[in-house]
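User: Predict the complex with zinc ion.
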Amino acid sequence: MHPVTHLLAGWTVASAAKLSHRDRVVVGIVAVVPDMDGLGFPVEFATRNSADPLLWYSDYHHVLGHNIGLALFCCGIALVIADRRWTAGLLTFLSFHTHLLGDLAGSRAADGYQWPIPYLEPFSDAWQLTWSGQWGLSTWPNTAISIALMGLVVYLAWWRGHSPLSLFSRRADRVFVTTLRCRFGNPDAQ
Ligand SMILES: [Zn+2]
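Assistant: Here is the predicted structure with zinc ion placed in the model:
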């Protein structure tokens, strides 16, 4: 799925408990972290016609980051830096797995390639997870899921008092939440 969809899914997980801003950032962002292994795409694209192309995207995407090893590493970071360590650690684990689940369900390439998830890496390459019902990356179910998550995130912003805007600007987030509460009322009064 697209990074924005992953981020929205991670944010809903981050809103499942009352966390500090720092903990929410950790839990929310980790839903996008697996796709860091796709950053080799520009390099592969730029060298595709050279005599010695660098296949950093084909070789490493869904290999380096989409596995239990990175999930545990992210949990470890959450356990060290979060304010509510165990809650944030558990939600970090869940947030990371919303990414894997999303890719398993809706990341089929246009050429039909399923981008298997080597879940047990770096400990073992025995599991290469795919799902026979997987739909394409640019298809309506992904659009529908993204729209549904956007609606949920707006509701959570009204209810919980924070949105993914706080990842970029806490001031913009406050303006957004205040606007929602002016329009729809204060959740404490309902
Ligand atoms: Zn991914």
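Residues 157 and 163 are 5 Å apart (CA to CA).
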